[in-house]
Amino acid sequence: MLVVAVDNKETLAFMGIAEDKLEMLFITAQRRGQGIGRNLLEIGINDYEITEVCVNEQNPQALAFYEYMGFTIYRRSELDEQGNPFPILFLHRQ
């Protein structure tokens, strides 16, 4: 499932959802810090029942955002999904 935020035909952000997992969340650089990511994720949580997300451990801004939104770390992997040495944190929201 792909959910897109648009304003006056301008794509502001989008998120990809698979089952209960947020697969991706992207906000254009010019629109970051305006609450668009929070609004999209709230839609994902409330309307699509998102309870899981993975984040690169080397992305503290994203980790802080997901923790602010009520997610907590429950697992860590030394490798990303492609087997590369980029630690991934698995977060869950109840």
From TrEMBL:
It is an enzyme of class 2 (transferase). The keyword Acyltransferase applies. Pfam families: Acetyltransf_10. The keyword Isomerase does not apply. Its EC number is 2.3.1.-. This is GNAT family N-acetyltransferase. Gene3D superfamilies: 3.40.630.30. SUPFAM superfamilies: Acyl-CoA N-acyltransferases (Nat). InterPro entries: Acyl_CoA_acyltransferase (IPR016181), GNAT_dom (IPR000182). Signal peptide: none annotated. Residues 1-93 form the N-acetyltransferase domain. It comes from the Bacteria. Keywords: Acyltransferase, Transferase. GO terms for molecular function: acyltransferase activity, transferring groups other than amino-acyl groups.
